[in-house]
Amino acid sequence: MKVICMIPARLGSQRLKQKNLRTLNGVPLFALAVRKALSAGVFDEVWANTESDELGRLALSEGAQFHKRPEKLADNTATSEDFVYEFFSRHECDYVVQLHSIAPLLSVEEIKGFTELLTESGCDTLLSVEEIILECLFDGSPVNFTFARKENSQDLKPVEKIAWSITGWKRETYMKAYESGGCGTYSGDVKSFPLKKYSAHVIKTEEDLRIAETLYSLTEGING
Amino acid sequence: MKVICMIPARLGSQRLKQKNLRTLNGVPLFALAVRKALSAGVFDEVWANTESDELGRLALSEGAQFHKRPEKLADNTATSEDFVYEFFSRHECDYVVQLHSIAPLLSVEEIKGFTELLTESGCDTLLSVEEIILECLFDGSPVNFTFARKENSQDLKPVEKIAWSITGWKRETYMKAYESGGCGTYSGDVKSFPLKKYSAHVIKTEEDLRIAETLYSLTEGING
Fold first, then answer.
1. I need a surface site. Which of A8, A27, A215, B145 has the fewest CB within 10 A?
2. Ramachandran angles phi, psi of A46, nearest 5°
3. Residue A91 and residue A2 in contact, taking contact as beta carbons nearer than 8 Å
4. How many domains does chain A have?
5. Which residues of B touch A (CB under 8 A)?
6. Which domain holds residue A81?
């Protein structure tokens, strides 16, 4: 069985400029993701999927490999469906785990646990989620509670918010779904993997980066 | 029309000891809530609802009033349904806005906007919510998206997570529901009020307090 870790990264980013090169604790977010993937010790190969030669070189210097994403799949209109498929079409394997560099609080332990669940549970798609253990509404109606009584929030069945921090797919199922006009992202049997409290924090703005620094200093000892 | 702000507070707290007296930017969380309620300028009266004489005195010194909660409604088994009803039964008014001291990032502007919506929209219950603009699952099934295609997350209709930072009720509707064996918390016509990105952050642990400090320094200028 062959399991590949794929780290998608673009050099351009809209809100926070050159996000992937911004640092947390002195390490660029992109390099941090590569290091975690390598130290998880569960992947046969770790690839950066980027249009940028600069990020590609950084990947190589960190010990990963460089998959050069075609320019047409690197602009703001390109969908993850397309660039994930393009990667699958060029790399023979059983599973791909997509790791996002903008989720720097995801721990090495979580990467390991996620990959083990993906390859051992028999699912086709594994989504990382943040459990919301509070009352949720959709379209004005209760999702995980009832207006008929006030329950203790901690007794509620959680709603799961997809974090996209780490996502896994069985290659064959994804490719078949995509090629038949379906959706690879949610193909086959879909399972979820709950993250720790702060692991789902993602970097989109300067503020998010400041918060990540606080969280990092708080969770370093805990999440590893 | 009479609108009362009620700030529930207990001196004991399970995880973070004497939470209400912990400080943010030098001000005890409980005093911070009182000051915000007073400076919102939209309440006829501001009351602390607590079993603690110490918190009661702090409320009085900050310019609020002290509703002494009966001991039997102040332990860990007491429900909000019961202590809110007890408060309603002792204070004539049209609306009560319940403000929680453990949500210190809620802004004065939000308290004003919330109270205006409560009293002007004709609803009976107003809940503060955090909008989740990401794919959500419940019981393994999609809530606000479909497995049939991958959409851009920012185009999704949000799931609303109830924040409990600030909650408002029409007194008459709440009391009737409670007295007839129904649920006051979600009585009558229920509407929601979306909070700003970090306003829903609540303090339950030491870590939450550290994060609040970072958020406070970041949002002070923004949220006012």
1. A27
2. -120, 120
3. no
4. 1
5. 79-81, 127, 129, 132, 134-140, 143-144, 147-150, 153, 157, 159-164, 182-186, 190, 192, 207, 210-211, 213-215, 218-219
6. 3-129+162-223
